[in-house]
Each structure stands twice: as structure tokens, then as C-alpha cells.
Model the fold of this input.
Amino acid sequence: MIMTGPLNGTFAPNSGRWVVCSKSPYTGMWGESNCGSWFGAELKKAGYDGMIISGASKEPVYIEIKDDKAEVKDARFLWGRGTEYTTMMLKDVFGDNHAMVACIGQAGENLIKFANIISEQRAAGRTGMGAIFGSKKLKAIIVKGNNLQLDVHNKDELKKSIKTARDNVKTNYGSQVLTNFGTSGTVDLYNSTGELPIKYFTLGKWDKATKISGITMVQTILIKNRFCHSCVIGCGRIIAIKEGKYKTKETEGPEYETICGYGSLILNDDLEFICYINTKCNDYGIDTVSSSGIIACIIYHFTLGNIKPRDIDGLSPNWGDTETVEKLLNKIVYREGIGDILAEGSNAFGRKFSIPQAEIATIDGLEITYHDMRSNYGMSIAYGMGAAHKGPSHNLCDLYFVLMGYPFEEINAPTITLDTYANDLEMAKCCSIMMDYRALYSSLIICSFCNPLPSQIATIIKHATGLKFGLDEIKLYGERILTMKRLFNLKMGVTPMIDKVPQILLKPLIEGGSAGKSPDFELLRKNFYNFKEWDLITGKISKSKLEFLGLDNL
Ligand code: SF4
Done:
């Protein structure tokens, strides 16, 4: 399913996004990936709230949509090509450079379990949605819309409420950090608090962090900001490298997760290499989080002596060894040699070489995103309770925003009064509230960096749709959406047995901002289940809760 969200096209702040959902080929659970760019807005302009793609083609195809005409076309001439070429060629064939393209690269074609869908260098990047396209032999979708007249409930009031929310978002402190320094503007801050993942989660601080930060990017290679449709923040980075090995014309720069994965996680302080590998990953259509997590896992276990060169095609990877990193990435994308196993993920690699699960940084089979939970205990819920939703994700329950003082009091998240190192019911409750709230965001398809007051979002929904919508509905609908995803996962066989955080992510670090600290995940998990009214043994949701949510028929 590819959906655009009910606010898309209204210019509500940061609402021009789109989402792709399917059962994940990587986790076997609910899969979902939310993407920026302008593709979603173009689909809406063509008159579609979304599309459902069923079945599969024998030969490569693409879908061409022009207003109310949708056709499946031959894509054999694009098969084997990267996303940049595919996008350019399709626009050329279509004859309109303003059409929007979402497509896969070689990673999706080769059914790499963590392949992306790429749109205009933005990624629908987690849970392997690119492999879903690949399995259907669907290379791309190109869309152009000209006709839409949006039918909203109360146009004048909607306009006013959108202006209020846009002004609020623009002026808040977090937005200004993102506008000025991008998502990697927090690298130095997280290096000092211990939130930055370093050397495959085994170091608490790194003296080279500044070299890869968003601030350094501004001072060296940043050309301008990039905005998704309707965005008032513009965290996207357009960069150019004028000379040297990684010389490039203007292109999309890396964001925080890629900076960490191909930077601090593997002890690489060469920002220009990160930009280069980011462009390469986008062209291949491969997730930078999972691919870097797998490569870091190999370096870690190789340097410990747990695997030998003969196990990995004669390679001898080491920390900061970018040349071998690139070779490993290429092997994964083309499933060459060891790449065939790595294309199935870190856990498959662990199974092949009898490496204990405790020493592999995955949860629910998915590489975790890059906020170290030892500096922020709530993130252990975001990751460890991933089976409530789509696997471990920083956007699922972004406790770092709560701790930065973002305005969530209206939905009872206790923002700055929360203790970052708490394992108590208050922390579990805050995580639960944020998970519900972000489930609503995912469904409205608003960027999670956009944080007006919840009451302002409720007012926008009310005027756009005519639904009775206030803070009570924000909370109720959020909980209902998260519960439906949990029900889907239960149906796929998920049990609380998979709520596990590996030891490598919990072992206290000896230095840095979180030295000596580690969340009590079991205690947090119990508190979370109790607050949610989920059974600790079966993982099922209580009957009274299902009735309250109107989901007892499920
Ligand atoms: S804040 Fe960044 S990711 Fe979010 S909508 Fe704006 S440009 Fe896109």
C-alpha cells in the first residue's frame, strides 16, 4: 500500500509525505516506511489518496499515472540500473521533468532484505519495502497530476489553523537546529551525552565526532537546504564536493543516521566518504542503517578474531577502513560471495558463523537505528518494544525529543521533568504515550520533526475532514492505530519472547556521558506491558482495552 495521508495537499506543515506499507520481508512483521520528497503530493494532485498494488509481474514493469489514467508498462530497459538513471530516463520517456518518480535500484531487484524505495534521492528506507517492489518486478512508479481541487471541510478555518501551526513549528528551537545544521546538527551533543553510537556500540565518546557533524557540513560542503513538500523546516542538505577523490556535483547530503552508520559506528571521520557512500546507497536503493550496521558488525567480529579472511572472501576489514567498507557494500547489493549471506542481514551472518545473538546489535531481526539507549533509557522501549509496530525505530518513540523539551504536555508526556535514566512506570508511561502519538503521526503522514502543539494538529484535522477531533481523539486514534499494528504482528506469530535487547547494547560503557549506565530493560518492559494492558506471557491485548478502542471485532 502506498498512501498519501489525509492532510497531504492542504499545506499543513510537513504533511506532503507518503508512506509505503506491507508485511516486511525482513522482520516478518508489519513493515512501514515513511518518505519525504514530492512524490506523495504529486500522487495526491493526480487525485489519489493512495494505491494498493497486488500480484506480481513476470517481467520488469513500471506504473505510469497521469491524473485518472494509470498504466502498467514495460521496464526491461531499466532493469539492472540505479535509481538516478531510472528516475532520469523515466522522466525523459514520460516527457515531463516535473513528474515524480519512486523506484528501486539493484538492491530491490536482487531482493536484498533491507532494500529501499527511492524518490528524488529520498528514501523509504526501513523494513525492506524495496524488496517488495523487487518481488513484484515493479521497477518504478511515475506520477503527474494536474487537476486536483482539494475538497476540505472548512477552507477558511483550515487556512488559519495551518498558518498558526506553521508559525509555531518554524520558530521552535528544535526546528531551527534542523534548519541550520540538518539532522546531524546533534552529533556533538550526542557525543557528549553518550547517545552517539561509536565503534559498534562499544565506545562512549569519540574525539573525531565534530569532523562528521552537521556543523562541519555547513562549514565545508553545504550548498543549500532541501525541503520536502509543505515543509517549513528544510532539514535536507544539498552538498557539493569541489575536488578530491569524492568530488561530486550538487547532490543530496547524508542525514544523521547515515552519518552515524558510515561514520562513528565504524570509526570513519571522513565526511566526504560518508557523502559518497550515501549517494551510492541511494543509487543502489539500499538502507544506510541496516547496511552500515551489518558492515560494522563484520568489522567488530573480525577484529575480535571471531571470523577470518577466508570467511569473508579474503577481506580483512578494520575500523575506519573505508575501502573495504565499499567492497562489502558492493558484495551485499550484488549478492556476491559473502554478500549473499549479508544480504539476509546481521542475524543471518551470526547464524552462519555461530556468533551469539547477544553480540549482534539487532532487535526483531532488524539493525537498530542510532540513538544509544544507555544515555536515554526510553529508547530501549522504542527499540525493544518494536514488535508493537515495525521493529526497532527511533521514530517510533522519539524520547530524545521529549527530553529536549518539545511540547507534548497536552498529551500527558512529561517532557523536561522526565529523568533520562529512569526505569520506572513514569518512563514506561511516557514511552507508551509517545508511541501512540507517533503511530497517529505515521497515519497522518506528517514528518516527526514537525512538532506544533498536539491541539493545533487536532484543529487542522477537524477543519480538513469535518471529523470531531480534539486532544481526546488524538490519544484514542493513536492508541487504536498502534494496537491494530500490534494485532497484525500477533497474527504473524510475534510473542513477548522477541522483546529482547542484546547484551552488546546494554553493557555499561566505561567512558563518556553515559559511563556506567544501562537501562533495566526487563523492568521497563513489565511497566510498559502493564500500562498498555498487554499480557506479559502471550503479548495479547486485554479484552477491555480492545472494547475501549472499538477493536474487539479483531
Ligand atoms: S523536516 Fe526534513 S524530513 Fe521532515 S519534511 Fe522537512 S525536509 Fe523532509
In short: The CA atoms of residues 290 and 450 lie 25 Å apart. The pocket of iron/sulfur cluster is lined by residues 14, 36, 178, 227-228, 231, 233-236, 447, 449 (CB under 6 Å). The chain has three domains: 2-144, 183-363, 378-500+520-549.
